[in-house]
Amino acid sequence: FPELITEGANGVAVNVDVLKALVGDASVTDADEKYGLNWHGKRRARQIALTPSTGTLRPCPEESVDWETTQNLMIEGDNLEVLKLLQKSYAGKVKLIYIDPPYNTGKDFVYPDNFQDNIKNYLELTGQVEGGQRISSNTEASGRFHTDWLNMMYPRLKLARDLLRDDGIIFVSLDDNEASNLRAICSEVFGEENFIAT
Questions:
Q1: Residue 103 located in a structural domain
Q2: What is the enclosing helix (H) or strand (E) of 129?
Q3: Does 2 fall in a domain?
Q4: pLDDT band at 150 (very low <50, low <70, confident <90, very high)
Q5: For residue 157, which of 121, 184, 124 has the smallest C-alpha distance?
Q6: 141 occurs within a structural domain
Q7: Model confidence pLDDT, tens digit, residues 32-51
Q8: Count of structural domains, the chain
């Protein structure tokens, strides 16, 4: 019964509620169970979306075409900061958002595309080592390949959602490396019922 064993900051433990459910104890309820994607750092990623921006948008009329009459914006900057800056003026007003995030392939590009945490750091952050020694041989090492990418994407998608109109749409260009994780995050942020196609 591998589902009985849990690992966390305090080491390996038996999940008593799962054990009770397996032996038919009727006192166990589903009240604390939730459907969703969880990973190390999700709480912090949620907080990042809520922290105020430290930047400022500056217009560049000299680099613009038809500055006085255009109804379009071209914004250059760190996308997390820009998404935060746009909240005050554009919350609930954007028709379409297109994003092309890093695919997490581990290859070298102009932008970071390798969000794989090194194994030592990942095991320490998730409480799977103590004093340089693994607490358990059954570690969650595969999570390190996705954790940083999820932590990068989550606040950006939360902020993008706040910008969209009720009938707004977001397009995300991505390959198979993180497609299932993106789908799970988008279901949480935008609502599973709003998914259209892959």
A1: yes
A2: strand 129-130
A3: no
A4: very high
A5: 184
A6: yes
A7: 666 778 888 898 999 999 99
A8: 1
